[in-house]
Structures are given as structure tokens and as C-alpha cells.
């Protein structure tokens, strides 16, 4: 009796994730390069962009959103993270570009999430005028809770990845600094030994 409602809820959540107009990805942005993504958006449909630089350089990137008529909707330079929401003025292909052209040697790892349109309701829920059943209400609550959990997990993973990368960079710098100090100590020790050796070495007498 309990397995059937649970399977029904899982099927609803799976169907909703399939038809959801959301793009979430992490990609590598090489140095002196630009990556663009394209999305069809209809007029008067709202969309939101959220991004964050996870690793690389000063953790900054240039971002631009361009409409189908080449109009600039959003443009920022050397941003570490930000979010922007807009409503499409025209139907067509919108372009989101991330640029690392100002960097000549450091590549970046960038996280991006693009949501288009309102969140789709669960299939079968809200299609009738009667009051929602207890199962439908529970399905909506589970759906909302899972979405919040996914958002929190995503942000925590991004923070963890960024913190781990910074710790690895710091550890590498400390390692090479320690190597340099060790070599300097050996050089100073060797020089001191050679100087002391010259002080106590036998010198030829000037008088026979």
C-alpha cells in the first residue's frame, strides 16, 4: 500500500525533471578564449542566469547576454559570481558568452545555471478544479523540498570545490617556498663551511 504512492511521486518528479527548461553545467574556459551558449526563448518569457568561477586565476570572468537583435541585455567584466534575471523582448535565440580573453596563462572552471520560464507544475496536479488530495499535496511538498535541497547542495559543492582549490594552491606555494628555503639553508651552510675551512687550512710560510 505504501509502495504505490511512493512510486507515483517518484514518477512525477522524474517527468518534471525531463520537461524542465533548465540548463546547469560546469565547463572549462581556456586562457584567451570565449565560450558561448545559445537558447531559444519566446517573447515575454522570463529567464535567469546564475554563474560562479570555481577555479583559476583571480576567479573572474567576463559575461555577456546578447539578444536575437544583437542587443546587449547584460554585460559584466571580471566578475567572480553573479545572477541576472530578464524578460525576453523578442522571440529568438539568445546568446550567453563567457570570456577569458584578458587572461594569457590561467584557465578557469566556470559553473553556469540558466532557467527559462516558470517552473513547470507536477503532471496531473492542478489540472482539476477540485481540492488537491493528500497524495498530490504531499507530492508538491516533496517536489519543493527536493528543489531546495538540490540548490543548497549545488552551492555547497561549489564552495567546497573553490575552497579545496584554494587550499591546494596554498599548499603548492608553501611547498615550493619550503624547497627554496631548504636550498638557501644548504647554500649558506656550505659557504660557511668553506669559509671556516679556509681559516684553518695550512698556509705556506713566507720565511724559510
UniProtKB/TrEMBL annotation:
SMART domains: EMP24_GP25L. It is found in: Endomembrane system; Membrane. Keywords: Developmental protein, Membrane, Signal, Transmembrane, Transmembrane helix. Residues 1-20 form the signal peptide. Its main location: membrane. Residues 34-116 form the GOLD domain. PROSITE patterns: GOLD. It is a single-pass membrane protein; Single-pass type I membrane protein. Coiled coil: none annotated. The chain crosses the membrane at residues 174-196. The keyword Repressor does not apply. GO terms for cellular component: endomembrane system; membrane. The keyword Transmembrane helix applies. Belongs to the EMP24/GP25L family. This is GOLD domain-containing protein. It comes from Pieris macdunnoughi.
